[in-house]
Amino acid sequence: MLSPSATNGKPRPAHSERCSRQDAASCCDNCWQLWHSPPHPQTKSKAKGKSASTRKSAARIPTDDKPPTPQTPLVIARPASAYVAKPVDWLWPGRIPCGALTILDGDPGLGKSTVTLDLAARVSRGYAMPPGGGPSDILPANVVILSAEDDPARVIRPRLEAAGADLDRVQIVEAISTGGDGDHLPILPYDLHALEQFVLQHRARLLTLDPIMAFLGNGIDAHKDQSIRLALREFAKLAERTQCALLVIRHLNKLMGGAALYRGGGSIGIIGAARSGLLLAKHPDNPDSRVIASTKSNLGPPPRSIVFSLHSAGAVAVAEWGEEISMSADELLSAGGLARQSKTDESAAAIIELLTAGPMKSVELDAALKERGHSTSGIQRGRKAAGVKASKSSYDGDWFVSLPDQGTQGIQGKES
User: Fold this and answer.
1) What is the Cα–Cα distance from 276 to 288, expressed in whole angstroms?
2) Concatenated DSSP letters for 371-389?
3) CA–centroid distance for 52 within its chain
4) Which residues, other chains included, contact 259 with Cβ-Cβ below 8 Å and sequence gap of 6+?
5) How far apart are CA 146 and CA 248, in angstroms?
6) Residue 105 DSSP label
């Protein structure tokens, strides 16, 4: 505590209300000095010539009873003990969580849309998920479908009927209306507010989007990690707020090699935004069967792969589910002849993926590849295997690299 002599014999002023201490008796010296001491001479001299309000601020003299406004950002945090642990609510146990984003990857024509509508039909009836079936203790729920490829009258409804869906519980989104002639397919992330209100209105438990690339806005580059993450981050928040399961369909890229996690089209940020990832591919031992394997499982242990086949039901196909098997997604691709052949092939595949969207600076390409674990020598061999071309924008400019069919601009040459 400060003595009277420390204050030039003057009585100590009243306790400051801004002090965190409860009374003047416990007010610490530093706190008292901070709010009640006169301005430092050096501070006072610097304040000359300034306005009264500026001089008060410089002198650190309080002008009201409110605490000073923080000048720097504050970290907001809570101890882990303040959070209430919540179990994961699964739409399809181990495979599709509610309140989160799931990506289903696969080549065209293998049955991704058929599987999606089979799951939608089960949700609408409250039926058990594969490999089981039939009535369960789960209540029927509503489904929202966004499809840019399948005709609602000729494809979607017949498939839903063949799968036994309650058609009144399935909403097929045709467009976003702007009140004029500007109706359009939903665009991510710009139409997420309208979609969220629609999901809440219908209390949907499942929303399917097929395929993802058809619903991205012009300003979203699906091959750039930061761009796609910004769009899908808001999409994932929609799932969290509504507790609706989001099932997004994506085609595989045309690369040969690499882990199954990297085989989906576009940036790695797409699967990065998902909490669960699934791969649909042909069964390696039976070309008439299909297998769904897990590529990512953040909310639980990876589930076993599951077999299904497509059978005719009039003019459409339906999914008939089989047993679960012990085969990983990487093993599934390997058995199908699509697995990594060598480190060089893996590097070449990654280079082709990164350059698909267009030329890049050479140093940026190398940095992206090294983040994925590729060595310098492997990158060089991969460049050669991929047929990468290099050019400069000017004599003293940066080196740019591109794929053979993209063409080059500027000065052709060889990097030093």
Assistant:
1) 26
2) HTT--HHHHHHHHHHHT-E
3) 51
4) 330, 340
5) 10
6) E
CA dist 14 and 32 (Å) reads 10
* Whole-angstrom distance, CA of residue 337 vs CA of residue 342: 13
Q: Give the integer Cα–Cα distance in Å for 28 and 60.
A: 17
Q: What is the dihedral of CA 295, 296, 299, 300, to 10 degrees?
A: 40
Segment 42-50 mean pLDDT: 44
pLDDT tens digits for 58-80?
444 444 555 556 578 899 999 99
CA distance to 33, 68, 74, per residue, from 71 (Å): 21, 9, 9
113 pLDDT above the threshold of 70: yes
Supply 153's token pair: 């009258």
Rounded Cα gap, residues 349 and 343, in angstroms: 10
Q: Cβ distance 117 to 156 under 8 Å?
A: yes
- Which amino acid is present at 265? G
Query: Hey, what amino acid is at 240?
Result: E
Neighbours of 320 (CB within 10 A): 15
Q: List domains and CATH numbers for the chain.
A: 4-59 (no CATH), 90-335 (3.40.50.300), 343-412 (1.10.10)
- Its pTM stands at 0.66
For residues 193 and 201, is the Cβ–Cβ distance under 8 A?
Answer: no
What is residue 82's DSSP assignment? Answer: G
How far apart CA 186 and CA 193 sit, in angstroms, is 10
Q: Tell me the average pLDDT of the chain.
A: 82
Residue 238: which of 202, 191, 277 has the closest Cα? 191
Q: How far apart are CA 261 and CA 259, in angstroms?
A: 5
Q: Which string of b and e fits 252-276 if b means at least 16 CB within 10 Å?
A: bbebbbbebbbbbbbbbbbbbbbbb
Token readout for 275 is 């909490």
Nearby residues of 62 by Cβ (< 8 Å), 6 or more positions away: 16, 18, 35
- Who contacts 37 (Cβ-Cβ below 8 Å, separation ≥6)? none
Please give the DSSP secondary-structure letter assigned to residue 156: I
265 forms beta bridges with none
Burial of 334 (0-12, 13-18, 19+ CB in 10 A): middle
**Residues linked to residue 245 through DSSP beta bridges, in sequence order:** 206
What is the structure's pLDDT at 131?
A: 93
Report whether pLDDT(306) > 90.
yes
Does position 366 have pLDDT exceeding 50, yes or no?
yes
Residue with tokens 């089981």: 132
